[in-house]
Amino acid sequence: MQWYIRIVDNMNKWIGKIFCWLMLPLMCVTALEVFMRYVVKRPTIWAWDVNIQIFAAITFLGGGYALLEKSHVTVDVFTINMEERKLAILNLITSLFFFFGMGVLMIGGWEMFKMSWKVKEAMPTIWAPPYYWMKLLVPIGALLLLLQGISDFIKNLYILFAKKQGGSKL
To answer: What is the pLDDT of residues 97-148, one digit of tens each?
Structure first.
């Protein structure tokens, strides 16, 4: 199972490091819009839509990387001093809720994308770019999170059984 961990961890690390660079065009488009709106007094009709699309890509495709790097917000007041084996057990139990949530998000996101694609949905703005591709990011992002969650689940199993048997952990 270590091959799975290596593949998924490297894939999410690669995707996260690539998509973090989208912050630069996001900042540039925002700065351009502020300049056009307040200095030139001629706001664009496209900047807000582009910002939403770029941010959607960063948010949805960066979720697996955030989980890999333990960057999601956690309430660790009860677990901060918990021994590693007990924490692994707790993580294994709570993973079931995570897997259920990601499954619902993947299925619901896929249905949402299919409906949007079918009607060729566009953003409800003056510029009105296609909206359906952003909705495709929902099930893709959920899949990346799910794969990373499975990787973390396996890591917790290694911790649990390595500690029981006195072996080295992953």
So the answer is: 999 999 999 999 999 999 999 999 999 999 999 999 999 999 999 999 999 9
Q: Estimate to the nearest angstrom the gap between the alpha carbon of 40 and the chain centroid.
A: 37
Phi and psi at 107, nearest 5°, equal: -65, -50
Strand partners, 122: 130
Place of tokens 């199972």: 1
**How far apart, in whole angstroms, are the C-alpha atoms of residue 15 and residue 13?**
6
Cα dihedral sign, 69-158-8-99? negative
Q: In this structure, what token pair is assigned to residue 160?
A: 């649990």
Cβ atoms of 49 and 129 closer than 8 Å: yes
Phi, psi torsion values for 154, nearest 5 degrees: -65, -40
Please tell me whether residue 158 adopts helix, strand or coil conformation. Answer: helix
